[in-house]
Design goal:
Layout lengths: L27 E5 L27 H13 L4 E5 L9 H9 L6 E6 L4 H10 L4 E5 L5 H8 L4 H14 L5 E6 L8 H11 L2 E6 L9 H4 L3 H5 L2 H4 L6 H5 L3 E5 L6 E5 L12 E4 L4 E3 L7 E3 H6 L4 H13 L18 H4 L2
Parallel strand pairs: 1-2, 1-9, 2-3, 3-4, 4-5, 5-6, 6-8
Antiparallel strand pairs: 7-8, 9-10, 10-11
Helix pairs in contact: 2-3, 3-5
Bound molecules: S-adenosylmethionine.
Length: about 350
C-alpha cells in the first residue's frame, strides 16, 4: 500500500498523486486550446506561424478525457491558454465541461482580451473563476506595433467586462521590454491601481527566433531599481534577493504589484505545473522541447490505465531545472505552440 499521499485536503484522490522525480506534486495544468491567435506579438509568435490542422488538435472529448484522468491523479487547477483561447470555437462550453470534472477546483484563462467583452458573461456562467490579461503598453500606436495590428480599445473593453462579470481578481501580465515599454511601467502600475487590477511584470523570455531578445531583455532587478517604480512600490531590499515570483505592496496601500523573473532567478524548485499543447502533447518544462504525445496514444485506442502510465512516465522526464539557452536559435516551438 502506498503511504506517500499528501495530507488529506478535503479531496479524495482516486489514483496515486502525480509526483515527479524531485518530489514535486503536480496539481496545475495549463491547457492550450489552440495554436492560433488573432494577434502577432513581436516577442511571442513569428509573423508567419504554421498552424496545426483542425484534426490535429485535441477535440473537446479528448481534452475532457485527459483532464479527467489527470484530475484523478491530483490536478485541481486548469488554466486555459493558447494561442488565443477565445478564438477556439466553443470555448465557453469547454470551460463548462472542464468545471464539471470531479476534482477540478478552479479554472482560469489567460487572454489578450480583445474578444473578451463578447465572452465574459458566458465564461462566468460556465464557472470560470478569473482571467489574466496580457497588456504590455497603454499607447494605442505602440500596441498596434507590438501586437501586429491589435486595437487597444478592445482590450480596455475586455478588462471592463471581466470586472463587470466578476472574473476577479483580474491580473495584467506585462512583459518588460527594454526600449519598447520600459518607459511605461509606472503608468501601467497607475492604470492598474486606478481600475482595481493587479499587474505582474514578467521578464521577456527568448522564445522565438526573429525577435532581438538580447536587445530588449531587461531583468526584474533593474525594474526594481528605477526611481519611478520605487516611488510607487515599497521595494524591500530582501525582495531583490528573494525568489523568482513575488508581490510587493504599493506605497498608496491600494494593492500589490507582482514581479516574475523566470530568467534572472528560477522558480523551478516549486514548479508544480505541466502544459498540454493544442495538439495533445504533454510539455514538461517551458524552456525545454521535451514532450510526450497523449493524443497519439488516445487515438491509438489507449485505455485509461495505459494513459495513466504514459502520463506518469512523461512526468519522469520533467527536469529538475529548466535551462534557458539565452538564445532563440534552434527552438522548435514558440510560445504560441507550447501555450503561455
Ligand atoms: N493569447 C493569450 C494572451 O495573449 O494572453 C494567451 C497566450 S500568450 C502565449 C500567454 C502569455 O505568454 C502572455 O501573457 C504573453 O505575454 C506571454 N509570453 C509570450 N511570449 C513571451 C515571452 N517571450 N516572454 C515572456 N512572456 C511571454
Amino acid at each position: 500500500m502506498e503511504l506517500n499521499y499528501p495530507a488529506y485536503s478535503g479531496k479524495i484522490f482516486y489514483m496515486k498523486p502525480l509526483v515527479d522525480r524531485f518530489g514535486r506534486t503536480i496539481t496545475y495544468l495549463r491547457v492550450s486550446v489552440t495554436d492560433r491567435c488573432n494577434q502577432r506579438c513581436n516577442y511571442c509568435s513569428r509573423p508567419q506561424e504554421e498552424h496545426k490542422k483542425r484534426d490535429q488538435l485535441l477535440s473537446f472529448s479528448e481534452l475532457v478525457k485527459i483532464i479527467t484522468i489527470m484530475a484523478e491523479m491530483g490536478v485541481e487547477k486548469i488554466r486555459f491558454t493558447g494561442g488565443e483561447p477565445l478564438v477556439r470555437k466553443g470555448i465557453t462550453e469547454l470551460v463548462g465541461m472542464v468545471n464539471a470534472i470531479s476534482g477540478i477546483r478552479e479554472t482560469t484563462l489567460t487572454t489578450n482580451a480583445t474578444l473578451l467583452s463578447r465572452f465574459a458573461r458566458g465564461l462566468k456562467d460556465a464557472g470560470l473563476k478569473r482571467v489574466n490579461i496580457s497588456l504590455d503598453t497603454l499607447n494605442p500606436e505602440k500596441f498596434r506595433l507590438i501586437t501586429g495590428g491589435g486595437r487597444l480599445e478592445q482590450v480596455f473593453d475586455g478588462i471592463e467586462s471581466a470586472l463587470r462579470e466578476g472574473l476577479v481578481p483580474v491580473k495584467l501580465n506585462t512583459v518588460v521590454m527594454r526600449g519598447i515599454n520600459d518607459d511605461e511601467l509606472a503608468s501601467i502600475i497607475d492604470f492598474a491601481q486606478e481600475h482595481g487590477l493587479t499587474v505582474r511584470f514578467i521578464e521577456c523570455m527568448p522564445m522565438r527566433d526573429g525577435f532581438d531578445w538580447k536587445r530588449h531583455y531587461m531583468p526584474i532587478h533593474e525594474v526594481l531599481e528605477r526611481e519611478d517604480i520605487k516611488e510607487r512600490v515599497a521595494v524591500e531590499e530582501s525582495a531583490k534577493e528573494g525568489g523568482a515570483e513575488y508581490m510587493l505592496p504599493l506605497r498608496s496601500g491600494r494593492g500589490m504589484v507582482g514581479f516574475i523573473s523566470p530568467l534572472s532567478k528560477s522558480f523551478c524548485r516549486r514548479c508544480n505545473r505541466l502544459r498540454l499543447t493544442a495538439d495533445g502533447r504533454l510539455h514538461l518544462c517551458l524552456p525545454q522541447d521535451k514532450d510526450v504525445s497523449l493524443r497519439d496514444a488516445l487515438r491509438a485506442g489507449a485505455d485509461k490505465k495505459t494513459l495513466e502510465a504514459l502520463i506518469r512516465k512523461a512526468v519522469e522526464l520533467k527536469p529538475e531545472e529548466g535551462v534557458y539557452t539565452f538564445s532563440t536559435e534552434g527552438r522548435k516551438k514558440s510560445m504560441i505552440h507550447i501555450g503561455g
